Fold this sequence. Notes:
Elements: H1 9-22, E1 24-27, E2 33-34, E3 40-41, E4 43-47, H2 54-63, H3 65-75, E5 77-80, H4 88-98, E6 113-115, E7 118-120, E8 130-133, E9 145-152, E10 160-164, H5 165-175, H6 177-186, E11 188-194, H7 207-210, H8 216-224, E12 229-234, E13 237-245, E14 248-251, E15 255-258, H9 281-294, E16 296-298, E17 305-309, E18 313-317, E19 325-331
Parallel strand pairs: 4-5
Antiparallel strand pairs: 1-4, 2-3, 5-17, 6-7, 7-19, 8-18, 9-17, 9-19, 10-16, 10-18, 11-13, 12-13, 14-15
Helix pairs in contact: 2-4, 5-6, 5-9
Amino acid sequence: xxxxxxxxxRKNTDIRMRMxxxxxxxxxxxxxxxxxxGRLFPTVLLPLHNTMTVKSLVQTIQNNxxxxxxxxxxxxxxxxxxxxxxxxxxxxEVVEAFGWEEQPYLGAASRTRVHGRVFTxxxxxxxxxxxxxxxxxxxxxxxxxxxxxxxxxxxxGGQTAILLSHNVTAxxxxxxxxxxxxxxxxxxxxxxxxxxxxHPGIVVKGWQTLYQTRDKDxxxxxxxxxxxxxxxxxxxxxxxxxGPLTSIRTFDGxxxxxxxxxxxxxxxxxxxxGDGSLFPQEATECCIQITEEESVEVNWEVGDVLLIDxxxxxxxxxxxxxxxxxxxxxxx
Length: 332
């Protein structure tokens, strides 16, 4: 579980000294937490000198890839703040510097390629929240890392909230041990209802866009090419059932990530376990409460880059006033 921030100060002194050798200094944000491994969550990296340029940042990343990746593994999230990044092209240079392979996005959210490997993060209306989730949780090939870039910081709200997913599992196991064991064993079904057209409010693709056809039979054929999928129709609406899918994934030996969207769905969406039973509403509400209690909000500043370990960290978006423009790159 996440500890009090006074814990692990000695370890963080060693980390700060190592950071300075790499060309960074350690920063702080409000409500930071300390992980079991003694790392700040998120760990904030500031430039050691105010003379650092985009080019020198890229070189620093290239020269210290192994150290940065190890820090990410230990901390779960790294926030690069105070660097002279202004544009999507600047961000793309940083993304390329890490040397990680691009992960194609598969999902219903609308995203637009901006530059190179850089996309809009989510085009949903800014007054709409996006709940906690791992990226591409419904796919076996999901990204291991996400990079977010603040091109335009919102004037109010719009924070990206993050949490350590294995802490959610641990707390749910304490509260509902038998239910969590069943979820782990049976997995869960996902139900998605797609209108023919794209949804304008939350910018979710309609089935015609998702499957690139206006023909129901062709759309159903493409959907069924995915394993463990069932399609039914409610008039012009396409209902896709996927699963049962793995809902708790273990990484790094013993970290059991809450790798599902139980807390993401609305009250009308069935939360069906792999054996056909339902995940209780009371447990769902408890899960939502735990995610909020475990979360840390990142208040965006222009030029911020937030790197998260998608295996072990969930993210969410708070509503904001315009303008706000957060870009994303997805890595295998």
